[in-house]
Amino acid sequence: MRETYHIEIVGPEDAPVQRASVRTAGLDAARERALRLFRRARVPQRSGPAAEAVRIVDGAGTEVFRWSVWDEGAGRG
Questions:
Q1: Which residue among 11, 20, 28, 38 is least enclosed by CB atoms within 10 Å?
Q2: Dihedrals φ, ψ of 53, to 5°?
Q3: By the 8 A CB rule, do 45 and 2 touch?
């Protein structure tokens, strides 16, 4: 069964910078997509507020994954 997940790239003070919705068979696929979007949002050429974290919210509105710039040195979530 496919589920809808909402991916948010957030900047300072958890202000949303970018949003996307994905329908996947599971959280692992949504996590990979979120991390790709996060890496793209952090490229030096990008304009706008700096991306500090990415989070995934499930269809019920519960945050199921979060990754920030401070987690990058600790390995992948």
A1: 28
A2: -160, 165
A3: no
